[in-house]
Amino acid sequence: MILLFIILATLxxxxxxxxxxxxxxxxxFALLPTYLIRFYIGTLPSTFLEVMIxxxxxxxxxxxxxxxxxxxxxxxxxxxxxxxxxxxxxxxxTIDVFVASNIRxxxxxxxAFYVEPIxxxxxxxxxxxxxxxxAHNYVRAMxxxxxxxxxxxxxxxxxxxxxxxxxxxxFWQNRDTYRVTGWYGFPNAVSLFLAPLTPLxxxxxxxxxxxKKQNWIFKRMFWIAVxxxxxxxxxxxxxxxxxxxxxxxxxxxxxxxxxxxxxxWAVGIGITAIISVFLLPTTNGIRKEILAQNKSGQIRIAxxxxxxxxxxxxxxxxTGMASYDTRIRPYHRTVNGxxxxxxxxxxxxxxxxxVNTGLLGLIGFICILIWYFRTGIYIIVKYKHTWSGxxxxxxxxxxxxxxxxxxxxxxxxxxxxxxxxxxxxxxxxLVNKGNV
Length: 436
Fold this sequence. Notes:
The chain is an all-alpha fold. It has a domain at about 1-50. The chain has helices at about 1-20, 20-30, 50-65, 70-80, 80-95, 105-130, 130-165, 190-195, 195-210, 215-240, 240-260, 260-280, 285-290, 295-315, 325, 350-385, 390-405, 415-430; strands at about 40, 45. A hairpin with a 2-residue loop joins strand 1 (about 40) and strand 2. Helix 4 crosses helix 5 and helix 16 runs parallel beside helix 18 (about 415-430).
């Protein structure tokens, strides 16, 4: 029955991608959580999100088969630095598959977190650079789908806070925890997905506000985009993700610092907030949470120490793809004399990339981030738009990096796709002089 549904849904999505490509992009980003719909094709594991990725890629290649290489070459000409850094990152990830403790499992992560998102990024960016007249519609559709997905996810999380529906026992009925999990089964996934969407929702609201043809979809999505930062923050708070809340604050801080009227207010609020944390009593829960002095913080510090010790001994190749939880065992330590579980990654985006893709992969990843922020600042400074798309894209990546200091907002199917969406948007902004 499930297989029949997947086949029917795939056929309908393929037809939509062929007839209405912008609509298909909107549907795709609205259904990012469908990586949770898992099944097998023969002996190979797959997800419905993966199926949609390949439908978009294959339809794109068929449509542009005569000039796909020219389009990729045009992408290289526009952003050679990013192109090279991306190839280094992908090559490093490929190498680390062959030093993994379980190559079959490593191939699954390599495919889902590196190959498919990067190919999708290359194909869609090439199309956006080629179809300049349609680029605005494509980007708008992607943002609508993404914010709609975030809005529904935030409403589910808020509903869970009051009802506990779909929340695993350990996070709901245990009153010491009391955290929501959304669709995902664990709380941090809620904040990792919702936090970087909040700046994009404001940008989408500005795009839709400027639209001359205000159809019913645009009117409703405008208000959803306006409301989403509120529901998103409430959902992150219900997930009790301090990292997510700080990430959102940093993202909005970037926006406030840009505008002269709010710049000094942002500086003042930021300094006041930092001083206030240190003025709180040492036993205060908020202080202990922010300064990593509570149990959760101590566990993270222990993980970083373990990963650091391992990488001192294996700096070049890391642990191998999807092998961290196996190879970190000899370095695992207790926290305050108590044993803690070994997690899938060390809860820091840079350490996670290093252990999974090696030193070369970390270098490629850092180069991607350097290109991203340098290019974004260049666009903002050169074109000086009041509502520059590049400003909001930088804000969103700032949220990703900030939350990445205490978690890994990349090692998950939907997060990897979203991560590569951000440089795609920035490239469109670069070509279109600041906006999309």
